[in-house]
Design brief:
Layout: H1 4-18, E1 23-28, H2 41-45, E2 50-56, E3 59-64, E4 68-72, E5 78-83, E6 92-98, E7 102-107, E8 114-118, H3 141-148, H4 155-159, H5 170-180, H6 193-214, E9 253-257, E10 260-264
The structure holds zinc ion.
Length: about 270
């Protein structure tokens, strides 16, 4: 599933090819994403220039002169630039054709993604209640500490709550808790300020590092029929249940927290 770093890498990959371009046509071959793609998307977007491509949480905001296309990649979606006359393959549901002769093509085999139109995206129901971006100063350990007081839920689902901070999916929550030495089962309200300060720094470091690694895949957003690659990063805990801890050598444990597999080291994480 695309996580925040992949979505940010997508933004960086497609933005230079979209900004300043006029949309000549929108072709929707299958409207049935998580919500139906609006019937009038072609009428609204065609003829307009794309001003900017932004990201909010895992939503891409393609801002036209009037209105914004809100895109979410869901479980399996991707966006890339192809020559507009390149024949579509199965699962390539949408083309946004540009005056450059290229098209922004949306592919999504599982169709859990979204492509919606809004004239006020930040007030849209999907975006209006989102917490701060993790890589901004609006997010820090003081916020985690303050919001966690009185919370009896485990710390891992707490930091994955989009109202607390956006973009901390299972991979990054697992890795940040390992790096901060915090047991993911620990009650959120019982973790000290000092440990939350450390945890917030680890969340920022790990996400920033993943985005930096994504930079090497930017060329994958143009041409070809493959998917933009997910970047390799060294994982200490995620997906490694039963394998030896890279720090202490003992077997990593796996439990379920908030319906998610959670791997941790019973020795290094307290
Ligand atoms: Zn360990």
């Amino acid at each position: 599933m695309p996580e925040l770093p992949e979505v940010e890498t997508t933004r960086r990959g497609i933005a230079p090819h979209l900004q300043g371009q006029r949309v000549t046509r929108v072709i929707v071959r299958d409207r049935r994403l998580r919500w139906p793609i609006p019937e009038d998307l072609d009428a609204r977007l065609s003829g307009q220039r794309i001003v900017e491509v932004q990201r909010r949480a895992k939503y891409l905001l393609i801002n036209a002169e009037v209105g914004t296309l809100i895109c979410h990649l869901g479980m399996s979606g991707n966006l890339r630039l192809v020559p507009a006359d390149q024949p579509p393959l199965k699962h390539e549901h949408v083309d946004i054709e540009l005056e450059s002769g290229m098209a922004l093509r949306y592919t999504d085999p599982r169709r859990f993604g979204a492509m919606l139109w809004s004239t006020d995206p930040h007030a849209h129901d999907l975006l209006k209640s989102l917490g701060p971006e993790p890589l901004t100063d609006l997010f820090d350990g003081e916020r985690l500490y303050a919001l966690s007081r009185g919370r009896v839920m485990a710390i891992k689902p707490f930091i994955m709550d989009n109202a607390v901070v956006v973009g901390v999916g299972n991979i990054y929550a697992t890795e940040a808790l390992f790096a901060a030495g915090i047991d993911p089962r620990r009650e959120a309200g019982g973790v000290s300020r000092a440990r939350y300060l450390r945890l917030a720094l680890e969340i920022k470091r790990i996400l920033a590092n993943a985005i930096e690694r994504g930079g090497t895949t930017l060329r994958d957003f143009i041409g070809g029929d493959g998917q933009p690659g997910y970047f390799q990063q060294e994982l200490f805990a995620y997906g490694r249940g039963g394998e030896p801890c890279k720090v202490c050598g003992r077997a990593l444990r796996e439990v379920r927290l908030g319906q998610r597999a959670s791997v941790f080291c019973g020795t290094c994480q307290k």
